[in-house]
Design goal:
23% strand; three-stranded antiparallel β-sheet; alpha/beta; five-stranded mixed β-sheet; 6 helices; disordered C terminus; YbaK protein
Length: 180
């Protein structure tokens, strides 16, 4: 059972997203469904291919001994983050998955509900070009029981991600697990 802080945190993130979309005049659709956080399962519940889902993963990037950056990587749901591409993008020594507590704090959401938006200045947003090219982009809306769909074009306009090739090539999907 989530504690009240986590529940409040999630509610605030959801409200911030809806307010941002409303004030940005973005057409979006809300989809209520059974609570689910894995990309494959929630895509099935929503009735679309996993390639149309935004898989959002918080990464820790060690640029050098003293500099660590946190990156919210957004890739199509049927792909995995190419950690070597992220490492090269930042000319870093290391790129890997963030620990759960840091990811939750920076993304302001629990694993499985992380938005493809960053509301924290310490979390840099990078999206693969195949994400912003989607006519319909689906993602959990900071909740396990509600998703949102917007166009990739509107997503790029409002979220303003750095758009770089960070997804692995077709056919190398992540094993089943939580969509951060």
């Amino acid at each position: 059972m989530p504690d009240s802080h986590t529940t409040t945190h999630t509610h605030d993130t959801y409200q911030r997203l809806i307010t941002l979309l409303d004030t940005s005049s973005v057409a979006y659709e809300l989809i209520d469904h059974e609570p689910e956080g894995t990309t494959e399962a929630v895509s099935a519940l929503r009735g679309h291919p996993t390639s149309e889902a935004a898989k959002c993963i918080v990464l820790r990037v060690k640029v050098d001994r003293r500099t660590t950056r946190h990156v919210l990587a957004v890739v199509p749901g049927d792909r995995r983050v190419d950690l070597d591409a992220v490492r090269a993008l930042y000319a870093a020594r290391y790129a890997g998955f963030s620990d759960a507590a840091t990811a939750e704090r920076l993304a302001r959401a629990v694993p499985g509900t992380v938005l493809p938006f960053s509301f924290d200045p310490d979390l840099e947003l990078v999206a693969d070009p195949d994400v912003v090219a989607q006519p319909r982009l689906y993602f959990n809306a900071a909740r396990l029981d509600r998703s949102l769909v917007i166009s990739g074009e509107d997503y790029a306009r409002v979220a303003e991600p750095r758009v770089e090739r960070i997804a692995s090539r077709e056919g190398s999907a992540l094993p089943p697990g939580p969509a951060h």
